[in-house]
Write a structure and sequence with these properties.
- The protein is α/β, with parallel strands linked by helices.
- The chain has 13 helices and 14 strands.
- It has helices at residues 3-6, 22-35, 57-68, 81-93, 107-117, 134-142, 162-167, 191-204, 262-278, 290-295, 299-320, 346-357, 384-403; strands spanning 41-42, 99-106, 125-130, 146-151, 173-179, 207-211, 236-241, 253-259, 325-326, 335-336, 339-340, 359-360, 362-363, 376-379.
- It has a 7-stranded mixed β-sheet with strand order 2-8-7-6-5-3-4, sandwiched between helices. A 3-stranded antiparallel β-sheet has the order 10-14-13. A two-stranded parallel ribbon has the order 1-12.
- β5 (173-179), α8 (191-204) and β6 form a beta-alpha-beta unit.
- The protein starts with a helix and ends with a helix.
- The structure holds pyridoxal-5'-phosphate (PLP).
- Pyridoxal-5'-phosphate is lined by residues 46, 107-109, 133, 179, 183, 211, 213, 241, 243, 249, 254.
Length: 404
């Protein structure tokens, strides 16, 4: 018999049904527009290198040198010693005490996946921010665990609403994720709010996962507090990495830091480490960028911040100038998440915006948002003139769509 007569199409597992990544999904529509000859302006992907920001030379030198020294085999599963030490010192500088363990991962993404996988049984739930970063919902979905969404408070500068979070906790809730500084809202959480969250975690026996990948990108010298620095007696996993502040998302280097009481964390950390060992190691030569990144010249950060502050101001001014759009100015990172006061769905608005103008943003519904609200996420990494052009196009498109 011919193969096609006996074989059936291969069915993907049910668990992937809920895996969605709106940021990349929107690319399919963008690719069509591009193929039809549209000039495209991409405000959808948080990759600083695409927009001309360059990796500090000393990091490149360290990696090239490692490769030339033939550091191209596997590394220890938790990461090379000098990197783990540099991460430990950096964590201590940001005030984290009671550090129990650290491992280096293939981007913060892998650390997030391993740490959630080691915690959640099917049917357990974890509190996730809405709007939020889609990786979390995908991983939780994949584990057949439940997403327990809590809504960030746009009326209060996108801060956490701790009372609302508390009302959502039930007996299957195992942990809470915060992203601070936040993607997609650009918010930074004040220490008082973080302290309230810590109290909640203690009251209900939750692990806090604090994703701090944008920690160095706070505008106008605003202070940022690492959640783990505020508590020694709560289990906290802090995620961070080189992708954003150190301009190497393609290196795929991140890490997790476990802090809190030994007796509460021992078994969990051992569970995580089983998986850390099973996947062998993160990219070995790239790990040599970690120590120089964290300990050598940091001047690129000032430059990046200066540029981002200008681009954030343009975003704030130009978007808020459009009657249908209102935007809480970002305090950090390179994202804004304006409200669209429109009668139709944000996915339709964003899709038509791409088709008609070539400007690519991501619909708010791709990040989770309150029922009945519409948003879009913009990445304000492009250079000023490109950004101005994009926002001009958004203004003209919106005016034509709702006023003609
Ligand atoms: N966490 C957040 C909040 C992010 O925005 C991103 C990337 O956009 C990541 C994690 C992934 O980081 P990495 O490149 O280290 O995997």
């Amino acid at each position: 018999k011919k193969t096609e007569e006996v074989m059936k199409p291969i069915t993907p597992a049910k668990r992937v049904e809920n895996v969605k990544y709106a940021i990349r999904d929107i690319v399919a529509i963008a690719n069509k527009a591009k193929a039809s000859g549209k000039e495209m302006i991409y405000l959808n992907i948080g990759d600083p290198n695409i927009f001309g920001f360059r990796t500090p030379q000393h990091m490149l030198d360290a990696v090239t040198d490692a490769m030339n020294r033939n550091m191209n085999g596997y590394s220890p599963s938790s990461g090379i010693e000098e990197a783990v030490e540099a991460i430990r010192k950096q964590a201590a500088r940001s005030g984290i005490q009671n550090i129990r363990d650290i491992f280096v991962s293939t981007g913060a993404s892998e650390a997030i996946e391993l740490c959630l996988t080691a915690l959640l049984n099917p049917g357990d739930n974890v509190l996730l921010p809405y709007p939020g970063y889609p990786l979390y919902t995908s991983v939780v979905g994949k584990l057949s665990a439940e997403i327990n969404p809590y809504y960030l408070n746009e009326e209060n500068d996108w801060n956490l609403d701790v009372a609302d979070i508390e009302s959502r906790i039930n007996e299957r809730t195992k942990g809470i994720v915060i992203i601070n500084p936040n993607n997609p809202t650009g918010a930074i959480y004040p220490p008082e709010t973080l302290k309230q969250l810590i109290e909640l975690a203690q009251k209900y026996n939750l692990v806090i996962f604090s994703d701090e990948i944008y920690d160095k990108l706070c505008f106008h010298g605003q202070s940022y507090t690492s959640l783990a620095s505020l508590t020694q007696d709560t289990p906290v996993v802090t995620f961070n990495g080189l992708s954003k502040s150190y301009l190497v998302p393609g290196f795929r280097i991140g890490w997790a830091i476990f802090s809190g009481p030994e007796e509460l964390m021992h078994d969990y950390i051992e569970g995580v480490n089983k998986m850390v060992r099973a996947r062998l190691c993160a990219n070995h030569p790239m790990q040599y960028a970690i120590k120089p990144a964290l300990e050598m010249d940091q001047s690129h950060i000032q430059y990046v911040l200066g540029e981002l502050e200008k681009r954030n101001r343009i975003t704030d001014e130009m978007l808020n100038d459009i009657p249908e759009i209102s935007c809480v100015p970002a305090k950090a990172a390179f994202y804004a998440f304006p409200t669209l006061n429109i009668p139709d769905r944000d996915l339709d608005y964003v899709s038509d915006l791409i088709r008609e103008t070539g400007v690519v943003t991501v619909h708010g519904s791709g990040f989770g948002q309150k029922e009945g609200t519409q948003h879009m996420r913009v990445v304000f990494l492009p250079e000023e003139d490109r950004l101005i052009k994009a926002y001009d196009k958004i203004r003209d498109f919106t005016r034509k769509r709702y006023h003609s």
